[in-house]
Design brief:
There is one protein chain. With 329 residues, the protein is α/β, with parallel strands linked by helices. The protein has a single domain, classed as Thiamin diphosphate (ThDP)-binding fold, Pyr/PP domains (Rossmann fold). The protein is 40% helix and 9% strand. The chain has 11 helices and 7 strands. Strands 1-2-3-7-6 form a 5-stranded parallel sheet, sandwiched between helices. It has a two-stranded antiparallel ribbon with strand order 4-5. Helix 8 links the parallel strand 6 and strand 7. The longest helix is centred in the N-terminal third of the chain and has 21 residues. The protein starts with a helix and ends in a 39-residue tail after the last helix.
């Protein structure tokens, strides 16, 4: 039920974000993960509280599972002073390190190297923790991806790499990027590679859970290839006319939320009640976020660079706890 709720919440927040974008209230473009919610939600749900995650632009579910409130996310989209970056970063560059969600940068696959660095620190400290990095198939065509894979395997760091194999790197189809499925490359680096139905949230959870067990046992990193489809364009500015309509129709029949609803309905769960609860939460979160003021232009240079001594806080000691409902972890 929690998996269904987080996927439904991700979609509802992103649908609200698209609506606000069309109203001119969201600066820049807008990016969503419609159709592939099961990957970020299922993978992050398999982590422990102390395991950080490095999500990308379609991985809002990772933020929600880690407990980032919906109102804080929507306020961030709007560029408000109470948003996650306090109006100082683009609407998809969000994170809350205090909750174990590392804010992303757009260059692919830079966040994969960040995850490897954190995993190496855990190994050196002897901590029973692992890191998780999510990325698209376009990232596998960049040299940094291969360097991160090789270093992680050589050092046997406790990291989990989840490839959201959604068919396109912006408008370039996978067949124009590589001949061999990237998961098959894992063996060449000396790590485990596993493929999974990326639209089955429970299947994603299980393969990542097993990958985490291997990582904590000292067996090194795992590459998980989660096959899915990006149901919208690269961003709200992109109509995805380069994607065959029949391809989208085929994947629409495999919608991850619909699949989980069907699974739980057979078990007697009130799935409509879950959806209604989420709708109320997003409505309340939107009102709360819209009431937050815009940042003061005079403060634009405040908090951009780190000054003074660094402050270390534990996961969960987040400044956004006053916003809405927190998630499970």
């Amino acid at each position: 039920m929690a998996l269904l709720r987080f996927m439904t919440l991700q979609r509802a927040i992103e649908e609200r974000g698209v609506s606000l974008y069309k109203q001119g209230k969201v600066p820049g473009s807008f990016y969503d993960g419609r159709g592939q919610e099961a990957i970020a939600v299922g993978a992050t749900f398999a982590l422990d509280r102390g395991d950080p995650v490095c999500p990308l632009i379609r991985d809002l579910g990772a933020h929600l599972v880690k407990g980032v409130p919906a109102a804080a996310i929507i306020a961030h989209y709007l560029g408000r002073a109470g948003g996650l970056s306090r109006g100082r970063d683009g609407n998809v560059h969000l994170g809350d390190a205090n909750r174990g969600v590392i804010g992303m940068v757009s260059m692919l696959p830079d966040m994969m190297a960040v995850a490897v660095g954190m995993a190496l620190a855990f190994k050196l400290r002897g901590e029973a923790r692992c890191s998780l990095s999510l990325f698209g198939d376009g990232a596998t065509s960049v040299g940094d991806w291969h360097e991160a894979m090789n270093f992680a395997a050589v050092q046997r760091v406790p990291a989990i790499f989840v490839l959201e194999h959604n068919g396109y790197a912006y408008s370039t189809p996978s067949a124009r990027q590589f001949v061999v499925d990237p998961v098959e490359r894992a063996a060449g680096y000396g790590m485990v590679g596993v493929s999974v139905d990326g639209n089955d949230v429970e299947a994603v959870f299980e393969v990542v859970r097993q990958a985490r067990e291997r990582a904590l046992a000292g067996d090194g990193p795992t590459l998980v290839g989660a096959h899915t489809m990006r149901m919208h364009g690269h961003g709200a500015h992109d109509d995805a006319r380069y994607v065959p309509r029949e391809t989208l129709a085929e994947w629409a029949e495999r919608d991850p939320i619909a699949g989980q609803r069907e699974r739980l309905t057979a078990l007697g769960v009130d799935v409509d009640g879950v959806a209604a609860e989420v709708a109320r939460e997003v409505d309340e979160a939107t009102k709360e976020a819209l009431a937050v003021p815009q940042p003061d232009p005079a403060s634009a240079t405040t908090g951009v660079f780190c000054v003074g001594e660094p402050v270390t806080v534990g996961f969960g000691d987040a400044p956004w706890s006053g916003f809405g409902k927190a998630g499970k972890r």
